[in-house]
Amino acid sequence: MSSLWFAYAWPALSVVSILGWVVLAATVLLWIAGQSWGWQEARSAALVAFLLFLFAVAFILGRSAYGVVLDMSRTRVAVGDDAVGSIAVSNTSSRPLLPADLELPVGSNTAVFHLPRMKPAQVHEDLFTIPTARRAVIVVGPVRSVRADPLHLLRRRVLWTDPVDLYVHPRTTALAGSAAGFIRDLEGMPTTELSSADVSFHALRDYVPGDDRRHIHWKTTARTNKLMVRQFEETRRAHLAISLSINTDEYESEAEFELAISVAASIGRQAIREQRELDVLTQKGPLRCETGRNMLDDMTRIVGAPLRRNAVDLARTLADTVPNASVVFFVVGSGVTATQLRSAAASVPAGVRSLAVRVQAGAPAARANIADLTVLTVGDLDDLALVLRKAAA
């Protein structure tokens, strides 16, 4: 029964506007009143309203034959960049089509495009620009044609395209060169653990059955008359972990929260460009970091909220989730105290370099130390490269 309702009844009833339902209700009430009390005026008014309704039906009958193409030149832009798109409409029928309106929903707003009278095979194209003042995922479309009567009692919509997601990524800044000094290079840092195969040579030792013969040092073997193999030190690959607090109680304003997201996105993007292993964690869970696009898409979806878990709790979760990290960043708001930062740093395993980026809108760039934790203050995204160079110095 429900399938029949949605297949037949609902499409027919959905074309009636709110004004149309009011007119229908008035028609019924006037007719009942006229019949019950013999009011000729009421019956006449009901008849006029009914004729208006029949007149409106004539405007929405018929079938339009449009070919509609919604083209977004880029579905991913940064905050402040204009997203440009176009709508190309063609008349695919063998007869001329009357003027009509096309509607394009853009988020919570709707843009209206007016189509002229179109001959068969004629193409009409409109360009549009979507301003991107803030980070968001904006649903663009579907494009729909609208046919309505002059009184707007009936309004018929036909969908012509699928909706398109427009990602407005957080603004980022280039950090080329500024990451050197605190992210381990490709060979990693040697540890005290020995290995039979790695990239950091340590010493020679006697051959043991089972050793890989490719590591035999033949010159020393010939000189000592016994098999000698190369011994290596295990290394740690560069692995960057970012803890981004989305607890809005730790930020003074929405602008400060957006700055924190931009800072984390800039650091993460640079790590991916340098082919580092990367993990980004928020109180809502990890973000995808396989590619820069995935990371920025997930950054775009972040929604801040007052949470019970603060930056310290997130730092402890990060230490458990990413135990092999070589560099850890805590990106926090100005509401996080020095005591809390010290507690966050205490959760990081020994030997792992930890840095806290404390965002405070309008504050001068600065660097300080709390025990082994380097604290960087960022008041503007353009200051990030500068404070990272100070950290690397």
Going across the major beta sheet, what is the strand order?
16-15-14-17-18-20-19
The separation of the N and C termini measures 73 Å
Question: How many extended strands?
Answer: 20
Helix content range: 25-40%
The computed structural class is: alpha/beta
- What's the alpha carbon Rg, rounded to whole Å? 33 Å
Strand count, sense and barrel status of the largest sheet are: 7 strands, mixed
Element order, helices and strands?
A: HHHEEEEEEEEEEEEHEEHEEHHEHEEEH
Write the topology of this structure:
Elements: H1 2-13, H2 18-37, H3 40-60, E1 66-72, E2 76-78, E3 83-91, E4 100-106, E5 109-115, E6 123-130, E7 136-140, E8 144-148, E9 155-159, E10 164-169, E11 189-195, E12 200-206, H4 218-224, E13 228-236, E14 239-244, H5 254-273, E15 277-282, E16 285-286, H6 292-301, H7 311-321, E17 327-332, H8 338-346, E18 353-359, E19 366-370, E20 373-378, H9 384-392
Parallel strand pairs: 2-10, 14-15, 14-17, 17-18, 18-20
Antiparallel strand pairs: 1-3, 3-6, 4-5, 4-8, 7-10, 8-9, 11-13, 12-13, 15-16, 19-20
